[in-house]
Design a protein that fits this description.
The chain is α+β, with helices and mostly antiparallel strands. It is built from 10 helices and 18 strands.
Length: 376
């Protein structure tokens, strides 16, 4: 799915209005954005990465209070960035020769020399804007919500399709490769990929894939990205009947997840949502599981903008148009999807068509959560 430049221009105008308000408040005449998440946010979904393993991109966007918009990059990156990412968005190109660090430093200093500036990459002489970015990024525009729904659908269907192809004897790495490939075929990138088979599912909360082979059960966890936006989802596949103890754990886990989802209403302090989940866990006999793994929080241009915890300030409130990924886990199981908060309630966007679901009655609502996919 491709969004046209007209909608991207509309989105970037809204972002710039928010940014200019902050710049005036802080007295900044210019802001430099190099981090991939911020580059995508301010540009309406464009991409400045080459290396997957770095959160810093190969091009920077510089937004000036006077209306000037500059893309600052090397002669290596300039052609693709201007052709494929920023063409038609009104950015002026300032480039430097890749082999001359001095030219780069002098060109950047010249751009910023007459104004108090901020950056997200530690540009010398600038203040750090990053503490203000989650507040800017979390409020999603109508264009971002449309893109998020597309990404959620692609992610949910992708992980569901892969789970149906898993057989006993496959390795965790083989399964991870299948999921990476399935998402890539949909023009979606995996930013987090966790796979745990059997004992590793019980032992570890963040199990990176290994050569371990599946015998009885396997969990897949993915964070997927497109246009800078990130979706999260977890699915579990079991072979044969699960134990009563594991069944009890999963029923408790989805109950906690449903409590988080039901409580994610506009105007509610996020710490109160957290407490709803913690209370639900205690009610089901697992009062301390939250201590062993974070429970999730607001998402958007990061896997989590921050993880909500007992010390999250009450001023941090749920708003309509925000995205959340709650991810309660109990040793041996987990429940996770990405939701959009609307004025009518929480919209789960990473559903997997045809997946076995559990109906959870909570707070006067029925919330559907994924069960294990059981195979013979």
């Amino acid at each position: 799915m491709n969004f046209d430049r007209v909608s991207q221009l509309d989105e970037t105008a809204e972002k710039r209005a928010r940014l200019l308000k902050l710049m005036k408040e802080r007295g900044w005449g210019a802001v430099v954005f190099t981090r991939r998440a911020n580059f995508a946010w301010v540009s309406g979904g464009s991409d400045n990465h080459v290396r997957h393993g770095s959160d810093m991109g190969v091009a920077s966007l510089i937004i000036f209070l006077d209306g000037r918009k500059v893309v600052f990059t090397s002669n290596i990156e300039a052609p693709r960035i201007m052709d494929e990412e920023l063409g038609g968005l009104g950015f002026e190109l300032v480039q430097y020769q890749w082999f001359s660090p001095r030219e780069r430093a002098e060109a950047l200093a010249s751009l910023l020399r007459t104004t108090k500036s901020a950056s997200d990459d530690g540009t010398p002489g600038t203040e750090d804007i990053e503490p203000w970015m989650p507040g800017l990024r979390m409020r999603l525009s109508r264009h971002e919500l449309a893109k998020y729904r597309w990404l959620g659908k692609a992610t949910g269907s992708g992980i569901g399709d892969v789970c149906r192809k898993i057989t006993r004897g496959m390795s965790e790495e083989e399964i991870a490769g299948m999921l990476f490939s399935a998402l890539q075929a949909k023009s979606v990138k995996a930013t987090v990929m966790l796979v745990a088979a059997d004992d590793r599912l019980t032992k570890y909360r963040h199990p990176i894939p290994t050569p371990e082979k599946v015998k009885h059960a396997v969990m897949l966890v993915v964070c997927s990205k497109r246009w800078g936006l990130v979706c999260s989802a977890t699915r579990i596949v079991g072979f044969g009947k699960s134990s009563p103890d594991l069944r009890r754990k999963h029923e408790a886990c989805v109950f906690v997840d449903a409590a988080f989802i039901a409580a994610s209403r506009p105007g509610t302090p996020m710490v109160e949502v957290f407490e709803k989940g913690r209370t639900a866990s205690a009610e089901r006999g697992f009062p301390n599981e939250w201590r062993h793994h974070h429970q999730g929080g607001p998402t958007g241009y990061a896997e989590r903008e921050f993880t909500v915890n007992p010390e999250t300030p009450k001023e941090q409130k749920v708003e309509a148009g925000m995205a959340f990924a709650w991810n309660p886990s109990i040793a041996g199981t987990k429940s996770e999807d990405t939701i959009l908060v609307t004025t009518k309630g929480s919209e789960i966007i990473t559903t997997s068509p045809g997946w076995p679901m559990m109906k959870v009655a909570i707070a006067g609502k029925t919330v559907l959560r994924p069960d294990w996919l059981v195979k013979a």
